[in-house]
């Protein structure tokens, strides 16, 4: 399950980004996961819960925004849902030259900090 290594990297990166802001706890980490990124969102959530143990993110939650895969046909400029497994033929003109617009994302988009209690 490669989601555990991804979750560990998210925990490490979020902790590093939070450190310059002083003694604060990370309350949440927001990530975007594309439909074609090869990451199962539920497995990532579970792995995050494991990876955050005994770290600065021990109480943090993971907010996952799931991004659907979309493509644009080069021939007729029609945007369409790709689906899983991906189907890259244009449903309007049946053209085979398409450009993937979204669906491969795997990125941290935000970190929510909470003041450390005194």
Notes on the structure:
It is a single chain. With 118 residues, this protein is an alpha+beta fold. The protein has 2 domains: 1-68 and 103-118, hypothetical protein PF0899 fold (2-Layer Sandwich); 69-102. 23% of the residues lie in helices and 34% in strands. The chain has 2 helices and 6 strands. The protein has helices spanning 3-18, 41-51; strands at residues 24-34, 61-67, 70-73, 79-81, 98-102, 106-115.
Question: What key attributes describe this structure?
Answer:
118 residues, 2 domains, three-stranded antiparallel sheet, 34% strand, alpha+beta, hypothetical protein PF0899 fold
Show unreliable segments.
Answer: none
Supply Rg. 18 Å
Average predicted local confidence, pLDDT: 93
Helical amount: 10-25%
Oligomeric description of these chains? single chain
Question: Can you summarize the main beta sheet?
Answer: 3 strands, mixed
Category by helix and strand content = alpha+beta
Contiguous helical run count: 2
> Strands of the largest sheet, in order across it?
2-1-6
Number of strands: 6
What is the CATH class of the largest domain?
Answer: Alpha Beta
What is the CATH architecture annotation of the largest domain? 2-Layer Sandwich
Strand content: 25-35%
End-to-end Cα distance, whole Å, is 38 Å
CATH T-level fold name of the largest domain: hypothetical protein PF0899 fold
The helix/strand order is HEHEEEEE
Integer count of domains: 2
Shape descriptor reads: elongated
